[in-house]
Amino acid sequence: MERIIIFFVLLISFLCLPLPSFAFEQPSLSTLITVQNNKYQNCVKVFNVDNVTLYYMTIAAINANKFQIDEIQSKAGNILFTAVNKQFLATVSNVNTNQALLRITPVDNNYYFQPGIVSNIFRFVEINLAKKVENIL
Hints:
The structure is a single chain. The protein has helices at residues 2-16, 29-33, 51-64, 116-127, and strands at 36-37, 44-47, 68-73, 78-83, 86-96, 99-106, 112-113. Strands 2-6-5-4-3 form a 5-stranded antiparallel β-sheet, with helices on one face. Strands 1-7 form a two-stranded antiparallel sheet. It is elongated and about 80 Å long. By secondary structure, it is α+β, with helices and mostly antiparallel strands. The chain has 4 helices and 7 strands, in the order H-H-E-E-H-E-E-E-E-E-H. 34% of the residues lie in helices and 28% in strands. The protein has a single domain (27-127), classed as Outer membrane protein assembly factor BamC (TATA-Binding Protein), CATH 3.30.310.170.
């Protein structure tokens, strides 16, 4: 009986110990909101969706992140918006029939800004790719 009690005490104490776990390493919040130099390659991404759908999803992503949309040029696929007192240009272009490219670049060509601005828009689009865009009349 004594062995069983010791076994259960050791088992419970072992289960209460924190065990190391491994996961995909996400950038920390401080690196996303800290102003830093960004690479142009981090501002461009190709999505497996047509350019019209990506255009509307980009507008929705900018709106969801509470950035101010200054100008929309639907014919050219450009969206001019302001985030953290800095203007950005989001350009949607066609790669082929099933793929579109989203490029988010600062208007003043100074890549010293918070990387979370671009990554949050990309993440919003990736999360909502499975959802179908609907026209509400």
